[in-house]
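Support reply, case 0932

Customer input (verbatim):
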Amino acid sequence: MKLTYIYHSGYAIEGDGFTIIIDYFKDSDENKNDGIVHKELLKNKGKLYVLCTHSHHDHFNKEILKWKWEHPNVIYIFSKDILKHRKAKERDAIYLDKSDTYTDETLSIKAYGSTDLGVSFLIKIANKTIFHAGDLNNWHWNEESTKEEIEEAENFYQDELTLLSNEVKHLDLAMFPIDPRLGKDYMKGAEQFISAIQTDILSPMHFGEEYGKAVAFKDYAENKGCRFISWKERGESISF
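Our regenerated output:
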C-alpha cells in the first residue's frame, strides 16, 4: 500500500482497487489542479473512500462533496457532527458516531473517540490495521493553562486512549497530531499513544509548515521500535 501526505491532517492511502482520502482540507499544491488529489488520486480506478473525522474547517472542505461528479465510485464516511452542524445533508454520506462501524467487502471502519469534535477512525483493510486520530490528542497548553485545565485535558485524553488501547493492541500505521502550537509539551500525546499501543509506523499530522518540529519526534518513536515518517513537503508518499 501507499501512504501520501496531502496537507495538515489530510492523507491518502492507496491499494489494489481502492483509494482512501481522509480529512481533506487543501490539496498538496496551492493551485489545486497541480495537487496530488486533483491531478492523480481522483483519477484512480476502483473505489474511492472519502473520510472526515469532524467538521472543523481544517479537516472538512465542502469541495469533497463534488467529487462524486468526478469519480464513478465514491463512498463518503463522515463523523456525525458534520451532519449535526449542517455541513452536509443526510443523503450525502454514511455518518458514524463513537463506537459505530461501517463494513463492506473491501474494508471495515470503527469510530473511536476524540478529545475535540467528532471521532477518530480505525480502518482495517488488506490485512493492515490503520488509525487516523482526527483531533484525538492531549490538547493542553502547559505554559498558558491552569493546573486544573491541564489535569482535565490529561484525564480526558487518557480516558479515550484507554478505551482504544483496551481493544487495539497493534497498529501497522497511525496518523497522529504533533502540533508545535501546544508549546513545550507538544509531543506528549504522541508519546503516550505509542507507549500504549504498539505502532509500527507513525506519521505526524497537524503541524502546518513546522516540518522540523514534527521530525523532532523521530528519536522518541524509534526508541519505541516505531518507524517515524519525516515528511519534507506536501504530496510525498511512502510504501508500507
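We compared this against your earlier run and they match. Two observations from our side: The longest helix spans residues 147-167. DSSP finds six helices and 16 strands in the chain. Please reopen the case if you see a mismatch on your end.
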